[in-house]
Fold this protein.
Amino acid sequence: MADRAEQQHRSGKPQSNYTMRTLLQPEDGKHWTKFSNESERLASMGITAAWLPPVYKGGGASDVGYGTYDLWDLGEFDQKGTRRTKYGTKEELVNGIKTAKEHGIITYIDAVLNHKMGADEKETFLATMVDQNDREKDVGEMHTITAWSKFTFPGRDDKYSSMKWNFNHFSGCDYDAATETKAIFRIQGDGKAWARGVDKENANFDYLMGMDLDVKHPEVREELFKWGEWVLKETGASGFRFDAVKHIDVGFIRDFVKHVRETSKSDNIFCCGEYWNDSLETTSNYLTNIGVQFTVFDAPLHYNFKEAGDAKSAYDLRKIWDGTVVQSRPVDAVTLVDNHDTQVGQALQSWVSSGFKPLAYAMILLRTAGYPCIFYGDLYGCGGKNPQEPVTQLEDFIRARKLFAYGDTRDYWDHPNCVGWVRTGGVENHPDGCAVVLCNGSEGVKRMEVGKEHAGEAWTDVLGWHTGEITIGEGKHPALALASPLQMGHNRYLWAGNRWMGRVPVFRRVSLHLGPQRCTGAG
């Protein structure tokens, strides 16, 4: 079921709307079990894919997974003081993926291929300190440093892979244990240099953290390619979300994607990169240079949502798509409102205001373009040091996408504070469409044509924000006339025929980010 849905999406002929979700990470090691238990409800809601948090061993039982230690340990070996990962054991992971797939939810592996952490031994080698703000500028002469750079994985005892990592397999590090110096060091050796196909921030943004992988090294490339092929077969997952791709040579990501698609004998292996940059030009250049079918998270759209929420009624909603990936390259865009990095208290903090967030979700869920991704914290709320409430009626929005957001889109993007669109429906198994109105200002009226086939029908607001019914007018262009009282400042209405009592935003395909937001609690 899940594979068929994925193929339908790629062929441009979906029979249902696809939606991705991210998953929360509890501290009890039962994340995979909870995912398995919850998958039937998620599928019923309209979730069709899940982006899992890192599935392999990090620095210990509480590591969220981005401090990658051993890619081949999925919670199977006693390493770093624990057998399970933060999320559970390998058996629980595989069962969770299998159960979700049976309910129609495919899964994506979070691939952290930029760095390693938690080495087993120290080594001494030559390196050169570089300027933090200009990584192409050396600070001082080449000299000997000592770093935690040797990975032997004694708990795994060569199962699945016999490779032992040493300093030759890395291009940089950030600590000299001999002098207790914290700085960025470029490791020296034959052919050693920062990767060229990376973001140009700080002159060269190859180095991010930990022991930076040298993806030009033939042994590193072979190992990672082999792991990519293996982890899909071992788990039953259907693709990858690549972490921090702006720090990894674009040529390596291209070759990795080609390899896993060729070895899996499927062009449908989904691949999405976290290329977090608010510049559309820079992001588009990356997508062009990678040279394979690849998607990225639409960071420019997220920042437009942030700006719109902060400005309230002063923001012109007609500008919301300007400079976004989904407007420029809709097939390559994974749309989102917030994620684990944009949360309050995180490095990329840019939390979209709670008042505007329902409008933002309506825009990514109920229109045609892009592949929407739902943040788990928005669906269930976040606890921890910076608790956040769930988005009001988000589950209704997702379900409405599943039921009503089909057919062509007819836009009424003609007012700075009140915009709308009609989804015409009329596709196989989904004859009904919907009408959506979003407002961030004062009272107004929006008149939208819904089609002569609906003349005389009574439509209702699926979300329940507007009481009563509206009867579709007669005439050459039967229309739905909506009066929009906006005392709350941010409102949205989703209208559909009474046959379905429609009231919620829908989209074409939506995914759930299942990890790794830094919050606790949740359902």
